[in-house]
PTS system glucose-specific EIIA component
Amino acid sequence: MSSITLVAPFSGSVVALANVPDPVFSGLMMGDGLGLNPTSNTLIAPCDGTITQVARTGHALTLTAANGAEVLMHIGIDTVKLNGQGFKPLVRQGQQVKKGDKLIDVDFAGIKGKVPSLTSVVVIANSDEYTLSAKATGSLSAGQSAFMTVTSR
């Protein structure tokens, strides 16, 4: 068994996945995890790993951690419809990143009101192979606060 602790990818307040206003995420269809109501404008790497996917529209990416966990980070709800407006990816597929590295700059002020919610989601896409523990609550600081611990089964 291998465990990693992810740090908060944004500053903001934690939202239980069941309370995220998107049935795909709240229904755990994409995996288990947590939501965040972001108060910072740059998504950062929650752990060391490899960028395995960056959405063409820049609103989401997947980072594979050293223990194999596929950390999917999705910024806002229905943000794919913005077709990239408000998102500036700073990494590319295949790139190695370290915890705290900047991944995507987001213009939350510019996209607010154009999407149903700015709540951003972090889920373990291959969560059938991992358990999540020590999920954070309350307000977190990007790159500083423990967000969740991911352990291989």
User: Anything to note?
Assistant: The chain has a mean pLDDT of 96. The domain at 3-152 is CATH 2.70.70.10 (Glucose Permease (Domain IIA)). The first helix runs from residue 23 to 26.
